[in-house]
Amino acid sequence: MAAVATKAVPISRAAAIAMLREALARIAGPDASICKAAADRGIFCRGFRRDDDAALRARYQWIDERRPGISRDDLEDLGDRWQLARQELHQLPTSCDVQAEEHDTCGGWDDFSAGELSRFIFEVTKKRVVVAEA
After folding, report:
1. How confident is the model at residue 133 (pLDDT cuts 50, 70, 90)?
2. What is the DSSP letter of 69?
3. Which residues have a Cβ under 8 Å from the Cβ of 83 and sit 6 or more positions away?
4. Calpha distance 90→88 (Å, rounded)
5. Average confidence score pLDDT of the chain
6. Where are the domains of the chain?
């Protein structure tokens, strides 16, 4: 018997972000940013692992300059702690929410197209959705 394809459900961009926010926060837990969780699991935007060493050092230039010779692992660890501190300071649920406001290390949710959000939701939740264009 052939498998039946599940039809994608249309949702708004706001609903897609809410789904991802909840799923990624659950994956990351209270002690890691979703940047770290995405990097560790190779999901979503791939977090710290989306960049090669030079690009990561440029993204976190202020840390890299203050810690000459810092290892990539230590830079990622400090970046993770910085993201968590920003979440706490702004009382926002994820680093993507912080960066959507600050656009400091990335653009947060603003970096992702509707198609990417649809793909990320399937990757993280296995739910098929079609995110409406903004």
Report:
1. confident
2. T
3. 33, 35, 36, 95, 98, 105
4. 6
5. 94
6. 9-131
How many residues does this entry show for the chain? 134
C-alpha to C-alpha distance for 67 and 46, rounded to whole angstroms: 24
Residue 105 per-residue DSSP state: S
Q: How far apart are alpha carbons 75 and 133 in whole angstroms?
A: 35
Residues 6+ apart with CB under 8 A from 79: 35, 48, 56, 59, 60, 63, 105
Per-residue tokens: 99: 């960066």
Whole-number Å distance between alpha carbons of 57 and 63: 8
Neighbours of 9 (CB within 10 A): 11
Q: What is the dihedral of CA 36, 44, 30, 57, to 10 degrees?
A: 30
Bridge partners of residue 129, in order along the sequence: 9
CA dist 2 and 62 (Å) reads 55
- Per residue in 8-39, pLDDT (tens digit) is 889 999 999 999 999 999 999 999 999 999 99
